[in-house]
Predict the 3D structure of the following.
Amino acid sequence: MTIFPLAGRFDPARLFSFKGGIHPETRKFLTSECAIEDMPVPTVLRVPLQQHIGVEAEPLVARDDMVLKGQLIGKARGPVSANIHAPTSGRVLAVGHFTAPHPSGLPVPTITIRPDGDDRWGDRLPRMRPESADPDEIAAQVAKAGIVGMGGATFPAAVKLNLRARYDLHTLIINGAECEPYLTCDDRLMRERAEEIADGIGIMARALGVKQVIVAIEANKPQATAAMERYHRVLGYALKIKQVPTQYPMGSEKHLVKTLTGKETPARALTAELGVVVHNAATAHAVHLAVRYGEPSISRVVTISGRGITRPANVRALIGTPVAELLAHCGGLAQEPERLLLGGPMMGQPIQNPRVPIIKGTNGILALAASETRDREVMPCIRCGLCVQVCPMGLTPFELNTRIKAGDLEGAARVGLLDCITCGCCSFTCPSNKPLVQTIHFAKGKLAEQESRKHQQEQAKRLAEARQERQEAIAAAKREAMAKRKAEMAAKKKREAEAAAAETPKNGETVK
Ligand code: SF4
Ligand code: SF4
């Protein structure tokens, strides 16, 4: 359903502003001039079966199996899920649970592989010629390759490519904003792999059947903009390379769409309802590798930064590489970090255990020294309203905070808890240093837990009802069968009695 058909109804030369947002110090200089380096194969790989939004993949290997690089080891389950492939060749040490690269620190189903050092490829996917391929074939190849949104959203890319079946799509926006401070992995990828990214963009545009493509890059990445401008025509598409203002959270899908089209995406709706699909620049690169070379999604570029790191860098590492090995690759910790984060300083999550692996959506590892953090004394709210002014979703963060603290999660949901994109603008701005976004994270986690419990209870109730129905049906069938048998026996007895009566000599008759 298209509720705001926009095709050709916005001026791609114009830019619009969005309400709220902040301008934090970007500190990208720590790694912006660090060329992407390949990290050697680590000593162990822990590959979670849930690296994406949707249902976890089903394991296809068992302990002690030997696997080859690129081999399918986890199969997507259901319409929103993603395949998982072996990042290198080696032996499966375990198919079990391991700490998730997530603040919960809870164990998730994980395949642990001991690399054999040969890094030997198995069968790759068949190569494709996208110029003559059908859109469905391209989407199917992207699904087979297990590609998910590499900007951190981790939504299965093929599901987005298939949105053309449900929405009247006209524009593909490539998100090269990379608005989180410190992170430079997309910047470097665009500077070093512009031609490959442009090819991936053309392939996705063809799969989506859109009319126009806009590549949006924040104004603080002039080299990336220049690099992408060299490849402005691919697969018959003219790519419009647009510089967008350096403003956090410009990389949020909905805010990027607002900046480029002037249109608001309705709350909890997809940008596809406006006819627009947004993909990350690194996702376009992964699509190029999958379609042209048959390579599944088994590695990514990660920014390792912060004053706590000895040698900040941009590293291409295999999915499943433990954080500790990446830190060691960068010379280890220069000092005990105040905060160790997966992701950027605004939306990143604390690393509970450095043995956790990087996954397809991991764009950064930060070791922040005390001088880089804002951990100060929390004071009472002074109702200054600054958090409201900077909230890009138009929420009232202090009210959310009050309701959550009072345990009123339903009330918090009524005032927009679920619309919050956990961007952290409110916490960043609060003069009382209130941990607003952390409180919101906690509440969202609680709500998700409640939802999951409710779902489990409903499922258990459905199963119990189904079992009772089955038992009643079996009992009814038994009763019916017994009644039928009884009727048959009665009929038989009657027939026998009648036959016996017919054979009994009547008075005066003689048996011959
Ligand atoms: S910014 Fe902080 S002090 Fe000001 S209203 Fe919001 S929560 Fe209160
Ligand atoms: S974290 Fe949520 S409430 Fe806070 S500014 Fe961002 S969207 Fe608004």
Remarks:
- The two ends are 92 Å apart (CA to CA).
- Residues 302-308+316-372 form one domain.
